[in-house]
Design brief:
The protein is α/β, with parallel strands linked by helices. The chain is built from seven helices and 15 strands. The strands form three sheets. The chain has a seven-stranded mixed β-sheet, with helices on both faces. Strands 10, 11, 12, 13, 14 and 15 form a six-stranded antiparallel β-sheet that branches. The termini are far apart.
Length: 307
Amino acid sequence: MRLVFAGTPDAAVPSLRRLAASSHEVVGVVTRADAPVGRKRVLTPSPVAVAADELGLATIKADRLDAAATERITALEPDLGVIVAYGGLVREPLLSAPRHGWINLHFSLLPRWRGAAPVQHALIAGDAHTGAAVFQLVPELDAGDVFGVIEHDVPADATAGELLETLAVDGAELLARVVDEIAAGTARAVPQEGEPTYAPKLVDDDGRIRWDEPREAVLGRIRGVTPEPGAHTTVEGARLKLLGVRAARDGAPALGPGEIVLDGKEVLVGTGTLPIVLERVQPAGRNAMGATDWWRGTRGAVSRVGT
């Protein structure tokens, strides 16, 4: 089959590479336009654009699938459109342009966590299981019939970035299998079952730690917003990024929410239940450092975070 692939971030690259190595022809790659990255705001191509260039694939860079992008994609005469985290909506007439329409690899067990940030919301919510699904794209958000799923237990200490890496690789194999089945005429899709939940794109405030929440909720939020938008709290009004944390050992001192102490060589912070250990932090305007070094730099003057 002739495939058009649409994707942008690192999580889409395994799928592109897997399809490019298949018996199908990737006739075009759609990705978002080059964007400024880093402190110097250097204009940088997306990870998918870089991979497409390495694979020698023609690229269409567009932030919206508007009339101009639709015309260019349609001219490629694709049999199937494949989308993985492109970052934009596919609407008519583009939705119906390929002979088999479009399929989407989504990183959740639909209908749970429809939307832009399913892995992040799964961790914040404390889900024990997650996975990936390939479904038929329809006008309603992530609501199409499902061709196949893979399921994963959520590792106890995995961050959103780490879990997404795993799902991206395993999901690429699922996606390739579904594409083969569509080409062979053996693919079967079933309607989604259950009550949908939604996973909107995270904003900076999602990374703000609510210290009065139970410890597992605090840890889940930190894992869910790592690496983006990043976990943070405040110390006397200044932002403190939390780069590494873990649950405190049994028998650690009881602390109130946001109360912070040095216990031996560990910096402990209280939650709504049990304390956590800060292992690595980054104060505003400074480099990342060990939490103990940061604490010693404050000369013990900090008694509470989140203030």
